[in-house]
Design brief:
signal, extended, 119 residues, mainly alpha
Length: 119
Amino acid sequence: MTLVGSVRRIVAVLTALMTMAALARAQDINDYPTSARVEYAFGCLKANGETRRAIEQCSCSIDVIASLVPYERYVTAETVLSVSQVRGDMGGPFRTSEQAANALNELRRAQAEAEVRCF
């Protein structure tokens, strides 16, 4: 095998490895299921008017949030938001726990960033 052939093989292997790494990273960033993105966009549209511009802004918003908050943490924060609205003792732990507050703060920071970038 010649030197040029060896270099070509090395370059091909490195290119394949870089492509695999990029695909794995893209999957990590895009770990939100379509249904979660659509649910967010529907709520956002209701809050911001159902216009073409709002569709673009709401789509942008969930993309920014997805890039900043892993889906598992997003689900945690959404659950905390939902359950903390329950009155009485049932919702109390979700309104007062440090873990719940951290999840909500992370989501709120991501939403604020999305607001700046998209609206």
